[in-house]
Amino acid sequence: QKMEHTKKISRKTKREHKTLTGWLFIAPAFICFLLFLLIPAIMAVVMSFTSYNGFTAMKFIGIDNYTRLFQDTYFLQSLWNICLYVLMYVPSVVILSFLLAVLLNQKVRGIRAFRVLFYLPCLTSTVASSMVWKWLMNPQGGLLNMLLSAVGLPTSAWLNESKTAMVSIVIICVWSTLASNIMIYLAALQNIPGSVYESASIDGVGRWRRIWKITLPLVAPTTFFVLTMALIGAFQVFDQIYVLTSGGPAHATTVPMYSIYTNAFQESQLGYACSQAMILFLMILVVTLVQQKFNKESLI
Q1: Closest CA to 137 of 151, 162, 155
Q2: Which residues contact residue 169 at a Cβ distance below 8 angstroms, ignoring those fewer than 6 apart?
Q3: 3-state secondary structure of 106
Q4: CB 90 within 8 A of CB 296
Q5: Is residue 283 scored above 60 in pLDDT?
Q6: pLDDT at site 205
Q7: CA neighbor of 270 nearest in space, from 126, 103, 55
Q8: Which residue of 159, 179, 234, 266 has the fewest C-beta atoms within 10 A of its own C-beta?
């Protein structure tokens, strides 16, 4: 009995030791989550119901900030702009990432060098690359307009005209995020057994049909991941717009993240900015949930 009792105590001690070890391992990440994510998020929710300006004490004003949001033409314009941006950016980055990954998955000489070249934009600072693009798209003496003129095509004002500014931002953002998505797709493509393609080839299935009937279904989970991350990232676009257009011209590229920044740090309306952040969070949440539902139905 004493031996059994000792064994039970020993097993309990080992179990407690393992539990303590597990908690010690996750403690740093859990503390960071509390300090930098959960607590600030709760504070933002609370502040969205106040008139806090960063200097004076918080004053509870109820839903006044949320009422003001739907009367703010600039914020409503930013919601329209971000919807346009998402509709242009997300399909472009997902489709191009997949097609380029298929090309980079070929077994040809020098393919590794091409993979490195495609990945270089990920290693470049967003601010630095945006400044380069600003020079390339300069209407006066920019390289893109010089090339267009050289081949007899009409030039564009690019970032300086409201009709083309958002399209220009989309081009730059697709270029900067394409490489990481290509690498994700490339990893998925290399996990597909070669025997599947060999069998299809023996049966006389053409290259494009193999891509449509074999490759796309097998990388569907990867596509869902890339699509989800692209959607979330698209709604949070800020760096390129801050550097390239500052929301202009004529608020054509003002998006919710930029509106939140200007209200919080330039106009000292932190409470109002937090209410805008809550609306943006709800938009991202709804879009993500809808996308997950459609993805589950398509898998079924």
Answers
A1: 155
A2: 85, 159, 237, 240, 241, 244, 245, 253
A3: coil
A4: no
A5: yes
A6: 75
A7: 55
A8: 266
